[in-house]
Amino acid sequence: MKQAFRASIFHCLADPGPHADASAVEHIEDGLLVVEDGRVAQVGEAGRLLSQLGDDVPVQDYRDKLIVPGLIDCHVHCPQVDIIASYGEQLLDWLNRYAYPAEMQFADEVHAREVAGFFLDELLRNGTTTAAVFATVHPHSADTLFAAAEERNMRLVGGKVLMDEHCPDALRDDPVSGYEDSKALIEKWHGRGRLGYAITPRFALTSSEAQLEAAGRLAAEYPDTWVHTHLAENQEEVDEIARQFAWSRSYLDVYDHFGLLRERSVFAHCLHLDAEDRKLMAGKGGTGAFCPTSNLFLGSGMFDLRSMTDAGVRIGLATDVGGGTSMSMLRTMSEAYKVLHLQGQSLPASRALYLATLGAAEALYLDEHIGNFAPGKEADFIVLDTGGSHITARRAAAAETLDELLFALIFLGDDRNVAATYICGATGPRRAAPADR
Questions:
Q1: Which of 73, 87, 139, 39 is nearest to 369 (CA)?
Q2: What's the rounded Cα separation, in Å, for the pair 139 and 112?
Q3: Which of 52, 136, 342, 409 is 20 to 30 Å from 45 at the Cα level?
Q4: Which residues, given as ranges, of the chain have pLDDT below 70?
């Protein structure tokens, strides 16, 4: 099936960098996105492409709106959606007080299924079409998450959490059960449709050396899976790692020792790293997930984008809900700007969008499939409406350039400004009133 969408169109061709390199982006004021069988067929000026369409090709008119690629969340926790915006605490206390009790509820498969559906629909309402997602230690929490994503045809990377130390008994597995459960889930879900499996030790603090060794064995046996974990989020956590793994040079060295640092390894946070860590991560193809709302909310520290990118580390933006305070990648971009501004670093609107689209796709090793509108890529995209709220409508009317408009939309926008979300050219959930949710 062929269809077309007429709108102002914006996407990234490469990293625009801190100085907003105009050659790295493409903006078509009156553009046409042509989709065939769920993939991008063409993108260009509407005046030129419309004449090439057959009379039977439907054209959706969004000329007063902006189409951008679907947003990509590089690190988020499905089971923590119900504890978002829980007051106070730093990381380790927050886990014990809020996160672990919420995750214990996932022993109930019915609860896990209901939360997974709500969580994914909320991502879609916010314009997020792909995500790297933590489930819980319960194998059925991953099953229900993958099943819900498959039903919505979403690209999703996810996995069952591994924890066998320093955690509640109700959330504890062991090296053997964790390995076997993860292996069964990989065999069932990895590479099925648009789904990918991530071997998911929560963080080194909650895994024994035996469990990390088993996770590394899985990573070697299934090299095209992902590894998804946390790294150097909080100074107290880093200090505990140094005590628990006294033989290691650094926190990252622990993961590297067990074969968990490689291409497709995604490390959330990466706040307290040194130059040697960054060089090692870049050299082995690891990814850093930049989680600004979570880092500010939990008082963990500030992500050094310049040092990470100068070292050659792949970087993508992430909400990290529930430590993160919004499922909106637009709001996440705005907080990323503030975190970097405090460190004397700049984040133009075009680069913020890059870190949530093509840059995030590169970070997850998915850029052959998604991230921009290159022909042949999957047609995941969103329609942004500056009229979604009174303040964005008023600010947009005063904007004189596209950069100014994008910047204002990033800072003022939210799910009200996502008029439609398309997955492989098909519409997902639209905006709904809170009572409908």
A1: 39
A2: 11
A3: 409
A4: 429-437
Contact 68, 35 (CB under 8 A): no
Tell me how far apart the alpha carbons of residues 83 and 325 are, in angstroms, rounded to a whole number: 10
- Unique residue bearing structure tokens 């008023």: 394
What is the C-alpha end-to-end distance of the chain, expressed in Å? 32
- Asked if 132 contacts 159 with a C-beta cutoff of 8 angstroms, the reply is no
pLDDT at residue 264 in the model: 98
Classified as helix, coil or strand, 37 is coil
Task: Note the Cα 187 to chain centre separation in Å.
Answer: 24
3-state secondary structure of 5: strand
Give the integer Cα–Cα distance in Å for 256 and 253.
Answer: 5
Task: Measure the CA angle with vertex 176, ends 171 and 180; round to 5°.
Answer: 90
Burial status of residue 85 (CB atoms within 10 A of its CB: 0-12, 13-18, 19 or more): exposed
Identity of the amino acid at 363: A
Q: What are phi and psi of 242, to 5 degrees?
A: -60, -35
Please tell me whether residue 271 adopts helix, strand or coil conformation: coil
Question: CB of 251 within 8 A of CB of 240?
Answer: no
User: Are residues 94 and 37 in contact, defined by beta-carbon separation less than 8 angstroms?
Assistant: no
95 alpha-carbon distance from chain centroid: 21
Instruction: Round the CA-based radius of gyration of the chain to a whole number and report it.
Output: 21
Q: Is the dihedral of CA 177, 178, 183, 185 positive or negative?
A: positive
Q: Write out the two tokens for 284.
A: 């082995």
Helix (H) or strand (E) run with residue 257 in it: helix 251-257
Q: Count other Cβ atoms within 10 Å, centred on residue 329.
A: 31
DSSP, res 388 = G
Residue 220: C-alpha distances to residues 7, 118, 215, 242, 286 (Å): 45, 34, 9, 26, 15
Look-up of token digits 């829980």:
86
Instruction: Give the three-state DSSP class for 145.
Output: helix
Quote the pLDDT of residue 432.
Answer: 45
Query: What pLDDT score does 430 carry?
Result: 54
Give the bridge partners for 226, in sequence order. Answer: 198
pLDDT on residue 429: 59
270 by DSSP, 3-state: which?
Answer: coil
Say what the pTM is: 0.96
Q: What is the DSSP string of 56-120?
A: TS-EEEEEEEEEEEPEEEEEEEGGGGGGTT-----HHHHIIIIIHHHHHGGGSHHHHHHHHHHHH
